[in-house]
Amino acid sequence: MHQNYNRNTNKTATFMDPLSFDEAVIVVLHAYDCTTMKGHMHGLHQRLLRNYDLIWNQVELRTTMAISSTFQAVFHVSLNWTGLRIGLESWMQEVDFSLNLIFTLEYLVHAYAAFDRLEYILSFFPIVEFAVVLPSWFDLISTHTPSIGYADTLPYVSRLLRPLRFIRIFRLVQFATSSLQQQAWAAMLTIVSIVFTTAGVVQATEACLEHCDDEARVCRCRDLSFPNLLYFVVVSISTLGYGDISPVSISGKFVIAFVILFTFIVVPIQVNRIQATITSHTDYSSAYSAAKLHPHVILTGFVNADSLSVFFGEFFHPSNLNWNERVVILNAAPPTPEINKVLHAYDSKAQYIVGSPMLDEDLTRAVLSDVSACYVLVNRQSSRPQYADQCCALITIALRRGNPTCPIYAQIINSRNAATLLKMGASDVVVVGMLKFSILGRSCQVNGLPTLLLNLLAQCNSDLDSHHSSPQWQRHYLHGYMHGIFLLDIPRTFSSLTFGDLIRFLYDKASIIPLAMLTDDGVRFIDMDFKLGATADPNLCCKVYVIAKGLSAVEGVVKIPPEQILSYRKGVRRKGKSSSSSNLMEMKKIKPALGDEIEQIRESIINMYSVAEDYDVEAAMGLADSEAYGYSGHSHGRLMGEMSEYERFASLGAPEDITNHIVVCGFPSDTYHFIITIREAPVPDDDNSPSPAIVFLAADCLNEREFERLRGFSDVYFVQGSPVNFADLKKTNIRSAISVLILTQASEAQYSDPNMVDADAITIVRYIVEISQRTRMPNLVVELDKSSNVKLLSSQANERRTTSAYGMPAPVNRNVSYLSTRRESVNSVLSRRDSFWTSLDEGDGNTDASFLLEEFIASGRVFMNSMLDSLMSECYRKPWITQFLHLLINGSTNDLEERRLFQIEAPNKLIARTYGECFRLFLDMASCTIIGLWRPERGVALPHPCVFTNPPTDLQIEVGDLFFVVGKPFAFTSSPNIFTS
């Protein structure tokens, strides 16, 4: 020890005195403990702050506290009904103190979880709450510590403060269903609380604490019952008073005078608030004023009730961490009645402002300068798609000019405009046409894909698979619906593991499936042998996109003890596989991103969309050349009677012997990406099956510009006719088709009732069902604009099932005993499904919850356009999720392995094995990841096909199951021994 630092003396060293190594270690450890403790406390406050609204908004908790507040007020009236009760019996004191303890804890939690604690403590209602909880504590202090000073005054103060508990009845306002109803209840409860509180205070001030035989005016006190005091207060504040009852004490007179003046001020204010609320329902000119308390996002562009409902449902979902954020809707038109219904459901979290995003004053009212993010929605049903995209581009420019740093997420229709919009300032774009028709194109080859993506993009609120009364297939199906796509921060403790080891570890520990990594070049599939390394962040290894069952599973990764990771790293066995030299070179180029490499990632996305833009330019030049050289349908330079290539396409129709093809009822708005998704799907080695031919059936042929975009594709045919005409359907040889795609014919302002938008698609389904009665039904995919119309499709499916009209014959589960007719068994299954809808609606809170168990949804036959709005809301908290979805569907041109999502039938070797065993076999033997399966119908046990997303590990594989696989496509015909150890 140094002489100037000795623990055994009182001498203290200065901060300049040198320390020994041991002393320095002690000081460092002490500082580390303090820092760690502060970090834990800060983390606790952040978690409580984030989950505060979620916990407090639980209906059961709010109802319990409101009932407790009302009971406490009624309890006070009952005790003092005939006069002020000076002393309380023991059981009365216990009841009063128990209630007060609950409200004390509530006040402390509110104060601790407040965003600005000082502002909360000094607010009106928190001050009242604090004053209300004091009387019971004053009584406790005066009873157990009578010797302290001022102990004799505490009971008197306690009696004066107890009547303030009537103000707590304001909690009943939260049960109002609209803002107008809230203001009406607030005005009524204001008067009630003033009357009852004043009556209680006057009773306490006027009461005779000592016996007095003289008149009340001489004694300066009087004992009054509570009903008489209520009458006195009402008469006093409403008229000049009758004089039959009047206060005799100085304090009582002061209270009455104050209450009369207070009433003259407060009641008119409440009336004015009601008038302002009524006015605000027709006038949305006010500015957003809560920017300092609540961060907000701006939603603008084309806003309708359907897109708004889906967007709000996803944005305010508990898994999205937007607990403290608000949405400001900036639209040039006033809200429609349908939009008002949606706004009233999110009254405290959304504000509608009538204004244009092109005007600076309107952007100022929306507080663009402090916005967290901006969303620009496009009119998907516009008759002028290019004009709709141009409007979104102008709005993006205006938003970027007003705020150079905030993220801007925009929707557009045409892929050729995506690169331009990104260059104009958009952070990310959702290309509606490209994304939708890429998914629909892949759905023609992958059974159940629409529902798989719906499960991953839509989110639910509760454990839907916990209802034990539902059939087993429903529990497994709803188990998959609860999964979602998340961007997971992998802690640094996972460094030196391979990507394959990471998948094995997370799947075994939390049933989480990592699929891709965020790199400085964007989202990429990673080789299983890629070794995770360190990044510039001392706490982060990398960011990966995963499939997980809710946010709780994702948050559990950071809670995994480092000892388990180290133990797994030591015990893992390498398989001895060696990557090729080209793969090793590619892996060395991969650099995990931290998420702030925005410009570099945007450049990679711009390059991806530039391919579509360049192809569109080439198509336009090809059209110009054909017109110049006389090959167009309008040219006179060709020989008499000679048809142009476009005319031959429009008139020849489909070959009579065409088989194993895809029939499309209608024309996609982005035909190029629809076809290229089908044709660019990699064919496994030694698999000589050609890409399926495509037959379009529509009343009107596509224009010459669109024809130029697809003229380079072979085996593409067009049949002019109507899908609701049996003769025209037969021209497509639909009975030999492998897939049938029905596109909705939605257009702007086509129907007086917007719910009729899917009428054509539903009618076409009926005709296809009838024409396919005696044959095996092809893979049917229907596009719907309104999710509520799914029930109409299911009603046709129920009729088909009872009459055996169509459907794939499937092997019967041998464990099921059939003791009733098929019709009765099916009806019992349907009745169980119908009875389960109620629990879905109550547990989820999503308006589409009752549609989940509809046959066309569960079997993966319906693509709902609302999925695109769900994806839009995910862009904020899950950056670059659109690029991940494109990668999943189409792969990447830079990926030598051509990895993407594909489907493969379970071979005989995997039948009767568990899903968990199959997951590990695919990962170890094929370097692929399975994320779910599609199962055909199984009689009564499974009345229709069903999609299981990441099902439980103990699910047994059955004959006919189709795996959803992510990786390099292969076929068991070309690799029969792939699972042979």
UniProtKB/TrEMBL annotation:
It comes from the Eukaryota. This is Calcium-activated potassium channel subunit alpha. It holds the Pfam family Slo-like_RCK. SUPFAM superfamilies: Voltage-gated potassium channels. The keyword Protein transport does not apply. Keywords: Ion channel, Ion transport, Membrane, Potassium, Potassium channel, Potassium transport, Transmembrane, Transmembrane helix, Transport. It comes from Plasmopara halstedii. It is found in: Membrane. It is a multi-pass membrane protein. Residues 294-431 form the RCK N-terminal domain. PANTHER family: CALCIUM-ACTIVATED POTASSIUM CHANNEL ALPHA CHAIN (PTHR10027), SLOWPOKE 2, ISOFORM D (PTHR10027:SF10). InterPro entries: Ion_trans_dom (IPR005821), K_chnl_BK_asu (IPR003929), K_chnl_Slo-like (IPR047871), RCK_N (IPR003148), Volt_channel_dom_sf (IPR027359). GO terms for molecular function: potassium channel activity. The chain crosses the membrane at residues 184-204, 224-242, 254-271. One of its GO terms (cellular component) is membrane. The keyword Transport applies.
